[in-house]
Amino acid sequence: MPRPLSATIHLDSMRHNLARARGCAPDAKVWAVVKANAYGHGLERGLRGFADADGLALIETENAVRLRELGWTKPIMLLEGFFEAADIPLLPEYNFNSAIHCIEQIKMLEYTRLTSPIDVHLKMNTGMNRLGFMPTEYAAAHARLRAIPGIRNITLMTHFANADELEHPLLTVREQVRRFQIGAEGLAGERSLSNSGGVLQQAELAAELSNDWVRPGVMLYGGTPGVRTADDYKLRPTMTLASAVIGIQQLVAGDTVGYGSRFQAAGPTTVGVVACGYADGYPRHAPHGTPVLVDGVRTSLIGRVSMDMMTVDLAPIPNARVGSTVVLWGDGLPIDEVATAAGTIGYELMCALAPRVRVHEGPMGQPA
Ligand SMILES: *Cc1c(COP(=O)(O)O)cnc(C)c1O
């Protein structure tokens, strides 16, 4: 009998969420973002779940090569581009699109003979202040790139800092779009601006924001970048992390649970011990009260999460026993809700799924 913990990946939900992204931005082609092992879901599952996407986008060059080896023939985009000149030959060889975000990358291209033409995405820094050329430098970078033999299409690209919060007090999407339009004035080429946040707000931003390509990530995995819920956007969970109760303890008033004795019972308390801990990717800092489902009933974490186990309050589930099913997140318990309780975001939880967790595929409604 293997340990009862496993993650079920719902490929049908991945397809559904991709269709939702298309529905939100019907005029744009879609890069499905599969960086970080498809947000913890497995690169190969990303390829199959998003087979209908117009392209796959990621960060890691070796995984981009793997996508080709797995048979992906549509476009592939490197979201941070190449990291050193030695990687440039991979671009024509595997037909990768590359982001170009700094002058050093342009210089490396100038000194490299491209064996066949490549498409690139010139990134503008419109306020995110991570990667990209300032709006004032953008046209010059574009001209310099244009002059390099073998550069075919140049897509104009930027990235939003606060697409989940339309009225952000410091930097709004509208302001970033305004800066983008100034920097890109008069330049030909397709436009690529929106991440999940931008895609989900497309209806509100219709007057200002248009994309030829969008780059949704987290929404394809049933997470949202902001305050509204997956349900609000009709997104479905794509990963259910489920385990079982492996032990039960009856406490009396004054008894404590686990390391640091962080939970102390005020009265008789039934504690379920669940096979899932921080070495599985469950956040150790999740506090008392973080939601958990036992036999489909909502209850909460008590005490400190340890390496291989955590403890939950069985009061709402009087019939719970050793073997009762526990859902940590996913089907019936949105990952964003667990993340919020733990002071983080759904992205981090899905990406942190640990290698020792068994992963399989299946539809919702059948926890492992
Ligand atoms: C990760 C990433 C995305 C996807 O972001 P989400 O918030 O997950 O939708 C889009 N564009 C770039 C450049 C990225 O690095």
TrEMBL record:
Annotated keywords: Isomerase, Pyridoxal phosphate
Binding site for substrate: 130, 307
Biological or metabolic pathway of the protein: Amino-acid biosynthesis; D-alanine biosynthesis; D-alanine from L-alanine: step 1/1
Catalytic activity entry: L-alanine = D-alanine
CC cofactor: pyridoxal 5'-phosphate
Pfam families given in the database record: Ala_racemase_C (PF00842), Ala_racemase_N (PF01168)
SMART domains: Ala_racemase_C
Superkingdom, natural source: Bacteria
Active-site residues, record numbering mapped to chain: 35 (proton acceptor), 259 (proton acceptor)
UniProt keyword Translocase present: no
One of the GO BP terms on file: D-alanine biosynthetic process
EC id: 5.1.1.1
GO cellular component: cytosol
A GO molecular-function annotation: pyridoxal phosphate binding
Modified residues (N6-(pyridoxal phosphate)lysine): 35
InterPro entries given in the database record: Ala_racemase (IPR000821), Ala_racemase/Decarboxylase_C (IPR009006), Ala_racemase_C (IPR011079), Ala_racemase_N (IPR001608), Ala_racemase_pyridoxalP-BS (IPR020622), PLP-binding_barrel (IPR029066)
Top EC class of this enzyme: isomerase
Domain Alanine racemase C-terminal span(s) in chain numbering: 238-362
Function description: Catalyzes the interconversion of L-alanine and D-alanine. May also act on other amino acids.
HAMAP family with a match to the protein in the record: Ala_racemase
Family statement: Belongs to the alanine racemase family.
Protein name: Alanine racemase
Lineage: Bacteria, Pseudomonadati, Pseudomonadota, Betaproteobacteria, Burkholderiales
